[in-house]
Design brief:
With about 120 residues, the protein is mostly beta strands. Helix content is about 0%, strand content about 60%. The protein has strands at about 1-5, 10, 15-25, 30-40, 45-50, 55-60, 65-70, 75-80, 90-100, 105-110, 110-115. A hairpin with a 6-residue loop joins strand 4 (about 30-40) and strand 5. The protein is elongated, with a radius of gyration of 14 Å.
């Protein structure tokens, strides 16, 4: 199972971006999906998650500004980011808990850079 992320870029404070991530491969199913981020000099943190049933969870710093959603049939997950702040600058990673042949494991996409400047 491979995850491919896209949609990063540079925006000004208050701007918006949408990140997308698609899972591909064969013979798999996706359970929970996630967006993480890692800012320079900081540990990777979980930003948002969504279950297969659509239940969502967010880190406090993005509540009300970010929205995670997915299309189960397409094996995609998206992160809509509004009212971006300088502190949202980071490399963003998508991840998914994939079941392949009865075994479950977390798979990671490559990072996509988000830079927010004033």
């Amino acid at each position: 199972v491979q995850l491919q992320a896209s949609g990063g870029g540079s925006v000004q404070t208050g701007g918006s971006l949408r990140l997308s991530c698609a899972a591909s491969g064969s013979g798999f199913s996706i359970e929970d999906m996630f967006w993480y981020r890692q800012a320079p000099g900081k540990q990777r943190e979980l930003v948002a998650s969504i279950t297969r049933g659509g239940s969502t969870s967010y880190v406090d710093s993005v509540k009300g500004r970010f929205s995670i959603y997915r299309f189960v049939a397409a094996n995609t997950v998206h992160l809509r980011m509004n009212d971006l702040k300088h502190e949202d600058t980071a490399v963003y990673y998508c991840a998914a808990d994939a079941v392949v042949g009865g075994s479950s494991g977390r798979r990671w996409g490559q990072g996509t850079q988000v830079t927010v400047s004033s």
